[in-house]
Amino acid sequence: MTNQVHNDVIIIGAGAAGLSAGLVLARAQAKVLLIDAGQPRNSAATEMHGFLSRDGVPPAGFLAMGQREVVSYGGAFLPASVKTIEVDHRGAFTVNMANGAMAFARALLFSTGLSDELPHIPGVRDRWGTLVHHCSYCHGYEVLDKTIAVIGGPVRELSLKQAGLLRRYSDKVTLATNGIELTRAERYRLEAFGVRVVDGIVSHLVGQPGSLEGVALANGTTIECEAVFIAPRQRPNDGLLRSLGCEVDPVTGFVAVNEVGQTSAPGVWAAGNVVTPTAQVITAAGNAGASAIAINAWLLHKDLDAASADRQ
């Protein structure tokens, strides 16, 4: 099966970023195809927050609304997983799907997001997005005044920051160091701010499925809590971007983009968590909107050059 339509832009990843870019481009009369594998990062969450006018909306409902809006302006949506991408001598792209389908475009926008590498602590994965969270701005208000445990992890600085930020929501916050070695100053600052610090390795979460009673330590003690926060390593879903030769920022390890999401590869843009791990839903959507405008301007220059060449 082949999509014979030669699109102006193919957007890979139809979350908040991809849909926002698709909306801008479709309204600008560009031929847009959005391809999405149906595995959004926030699928486990019951609500999304921090998006003006959409606060508290279920993630799946938000995506469905976005898809309807993009399609209403002429954009197309294809549920599929992209396997490989080819570039011809003119710089045009052929996108090959895992199911054998192909699609063609003059430009690409990647909004493929990132994957959270959850710690191998029994009980974390099955509570992820409901009782175990990673972002105080996304979920802190929902645990207001509750008993909160922060489990230290490989992203050390973020674990400590979480503990401090969550103290603003509750006076019952405990940091389980879980292998993090605190300096005397770090410990003093957290404890002075009202965060209880408990040294020890976390063995598992306590509670029946769908509930949470506490965080168990290997020494046999349990930290009672109603919510858990962790700071997982974040892995960008950028394999396809790298396969196109996009340069990578040596400091962050993420694909390098300019202020409007343009990569070093001609005709290739990226927006959202795949290049900006700290972007919230509304931030990713805004960044992608700016990328869409930049892509449309790039296409216009191509069209003007082609029209001028035809008249000579």
Can you describe this structure?
With 312 residues, this protein is an alpha/beta fold. It has seven helices and 17 strands. Strands 1, 2, 3, 4, 5, 6 and 17 form a seven-stranded mixed β-sheet that branches. The chain has a five-stranded parallel β-sheet with strand order 8-15-9-10-11. The protein has two domains: 2-115 and 233-311, FAD/NAD(P)-binding domain (3-Layer(bba) Sandwich); 119-230, FAD/NAD(P)-binding domain (3-Layer(bba) Sandwich).
Give the gist of this structure.
With 312 residues, the chain is α/β, with parallel strands linked by helices.
Q: What is the helix content?
A: 25-40%
Number of domains: 2
What's the architecture of the largest domain, going by CATH? 3-Layer(bba) Sandwich
Largest sheet: 7 strands, mixed
CATH class placement of the largest domain: Alpha Beta
| The CATH homologous superfamily of the largest domain | FAD/NAD(P)-binding domain
Integer average pLDDT: 95
- Series of secondary-structure elements, N-terminal to C-terminal: EHEHEEEEEEHEHEHEEEEEEHEH
Q: Which word captures the global form?
A: elongated
Radius of gyration: 22 Å
**Could you say which structural class the secondary elements and strand pairing correspond to?**
alpha/beta
Low-pLDDT stretches: none
Total beta strand runs? 17
What is the tally of helical segments?
7
Strand content: 25-35%
CATH topological fold name of the largest domain: FAD/NAD(P)-binding domain
**Distance linking N and C termini:** 39 Å
